[in-house]
Design a protein that fits this description.
The chain has two helices and 13 strands, in the order αβββββββββββββα. The chain has 208 residues and is of the alpha+beta class. The longest helix is centred in the last third of the chain and has 24 residues, at 184-207.
Length: 208
């Protein structure tokens, strides 16, 4: 309720300036950013990888502060499989992970709380909220995209609670991961192991 009242007040304060204009908007200046950071820019088909959710709260309240918010990612389930989400130490869920869909894309919505900020935001103002684990399903040559946005696209959900309750509006940036063939060395190793197993089976048959 506190969050709703504060954001309603902010909306009412912005309305007079919009009266009489052709393009009224709720857009406010962004503060900080939330972005996705894959463990590798490329991954082989069938391989697992992680994607960190990073919060840059530079210029938002105190650093470190006490932050909470709710975000949603989206991706093509034909290209990627969501396996898990692991929070950074000291961070807790207030909602999710909740799966859903938006057209042909799967969504994962997560709400987080870090009451101290020390476990998310370091002295530079940037830190990880947690990490997604995915498995690449796409065929080689695919560029898999992962989008991210505030789960509340009207009022926003991100808050700095130190020293006082303060909504803020970060910019959001998704990520891309290139799906590549299994490395040639891996294929050669698999072929060699397969040949070794075949020879052993033939030897066992002959001795019998």
């Amino acid at each position: 309720m506190k969050r709703f009242i504060a954001r309603t007040a902010l909306l009412l304060l912005t309305l007079p300036a919009a009266v009489g204009t052709a393009q009224a908007s709720l857009i406010v200046p962004t503060e900080g950013s939330v972005y996705l950071q894959p463990s590798s820019p490329t991954v082989g088909t069938g391989a697992s990888f992680t994607v960190a959710v990073v919060l840059n709260a530079t210029g938002v309240g105190n650093v470190p502060g006490a932050y909470d918010g709710q975000f949603v990612i989206d991706f093509d389930p034909i290209e990627l499989r969501f396996d898990a989400f692991a929070l950074a130490p000291g961070v807790s869920f207030f909602s999710g992970p909740a799966t859903g869909s938006a057209g042909s894309r799967q969504t994962i919505t997560i709400g987080f709380i870090d009451s101290t900020g020390a476990n998310v935001i370091d002295g530079t103002g940037t830190g990880s909220i947690g990490r997604f684990s995915f498995t690449a399903l796409a065929t080689p040559g695919t560029i898999a995209t992962i989008g991210i946005a505030d789960a509340d696209d009207l009022f926003g959900s991100f808050v700095s609670n130190a020293p006082t309750y303060q909504p803020f509006y970060p910019a959001f940036q998704g990520a891309q991961v290139g799906v590549i063939p299994v490395p040639a060395a891996g294929l050669l190793l698999a072929s060699a192991l397969g040949g070794l197993g075949l020879r052993r089976r033939r030897g066992a048959t002959a001795s019998a």
